[in-house]
């Protein structure tokens, strides 16, 4: 019989737990925390089909809470176990990471704090994810310290994205536009539609990439669900945030060239940021008989959209703004 998920437990490769009436299989070995339940940590747990009874491991914990609303998570198809198994930190070595600290870059932390985070802050689990090629850009080409910085930034984005999703599940929409964590090609019903491309629809997404949060497009027709553009390449992702909301509280504003936020006459919807902190805003631009979601900023010469394995710069575009 599968044991219940519980916090403060070291879970290893192949473990299966039950939570809220469903079973989940480990994606990344880790020591669980109270706010890392399987329903809100799709990077750590993959939900199994309810009819699949294989691969059960014994763990005993607490069962309860409100069932998630249709966000069935599965292990990424391209995930491979890391060549070296990173052990989960013992519970007495676990360290608390405060909200303000998560805003810092890895390079801004002192050496003692870095060591604490490597041992007890879940950074090893992040490195295990990186070793599997999970949502990171050219990670294998980076130095060991750059890899740690990448894993730290990815871990913090996932933590914040999971918190946003949990808030959305609990309270619903809090405004005309809201980012929520999503996985794969299952597009939420209230995702903001940009328009059709051939026989499929295009929606707005964003995801962590190389120290920044890049804006792109999502569709149930894409092989992984989402595509972002970065350094003139398309990056395909199955874990991303998608923009949901109500267009009655939003409108598109014409723009061209480098974005001047003050000239829009309305507050733009923030999309993400470059790895140097430059804000990126949600844009859309016409190309090849369709209107594509993308990004605009004060440093880009137009809206950049991912298309045909590259990025296209479109001089005349529109920016999504609040009414």
UniProtKB/TrEMBL annotation:
The lineage of its organism: Eukaryota, Fungi, Dikarya, Basidiomycota, Agaricomycotina. Residues 35-98 are annotated as: Disordered. GO terms for biological process: carbohydrate metabolic process. The keyword Signal does not apply. One of its GO terms (cellular component) is extracellular region. Pfam families: CBM_5_12, DM9. SUPFAM superfamilies: Carbohydrate binding domain. This is Carbohydrate-binding module family 12 protein. Keywords: Hydrolase. Residues 69-78 have a biased composition (Low complexity). Residues 47-59 have a biased composition (Basic and acidic residues). InterPro entries: CBM5/12 (IPR003610), CBM_sf_5/12 (IPR036573), DM9_repeat (IPR006616). Residues 5-45 form the Chitin-binding type-3 domain.
């Amino acid at each position: 019989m599968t044991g219940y998920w519980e916090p403060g437990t070291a879970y290893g490769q192949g473990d299966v737990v039950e939570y809220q009436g469903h079973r989940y299989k480990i994606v990344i070995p880790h020591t669980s925390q109270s706010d890392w339940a399987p329903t809100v940590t799709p990077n750590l747990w993959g939900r199994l089909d309810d009819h699949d009874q294989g691969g059960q491991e014994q763990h005993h914990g607490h069962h309860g809470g409100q069932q998630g609303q249709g966000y069935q998570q599965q292990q990424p198809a391209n995930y491979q176990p890391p060549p070296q198994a990173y052990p989960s930190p013992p519970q007495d070595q676990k360290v608390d990471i405060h909200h303000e600290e998560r805003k810092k870059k890895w390079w801004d932390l002192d050496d003692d704090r870095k060591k604490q985070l490597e041992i007890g802050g879940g950074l090893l689990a992040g490195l295990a994810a990186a070793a599997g090629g999970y949502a990171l850009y050219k990670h294998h080409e980076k130095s060991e310290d750059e890899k740690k910085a990448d894993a730290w930034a990815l871990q913090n984005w996932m933590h914040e994205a999971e918190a946003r999703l949990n808030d959305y599940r609990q309270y619903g929409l809090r405004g005309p536009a809201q980012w929520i964590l999503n996985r794969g090609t299952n597009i939420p019903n209230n995702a903001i539609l940009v328009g059709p491309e051939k026989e499929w629809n295009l929606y707005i997404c964003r995801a962590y990439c190389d120290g920044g949060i890049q804006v792109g497009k999502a569709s149930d027709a894409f092989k992984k669900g989402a595509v972002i553009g970065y350094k003139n390449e398309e990056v395909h992702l199955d874990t991303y945030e998608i923009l949901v909301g109500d267009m009655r509280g939003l409108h598109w504003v014409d723009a061209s060239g480098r974005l001047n936020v003050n000239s829009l006459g309305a507050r733009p919807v923030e999309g993400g940021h470059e790895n140097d902190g430059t804000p990126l805003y949600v844009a859309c631009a016409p190309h090849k008989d369709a209107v594509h979601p993308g990004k605009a900023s004060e440093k880009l010469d137009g809206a950049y959209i991912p298309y045909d394995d590259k990025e296209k710069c479109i001089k005349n575009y529109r920016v999504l703004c609040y009414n």
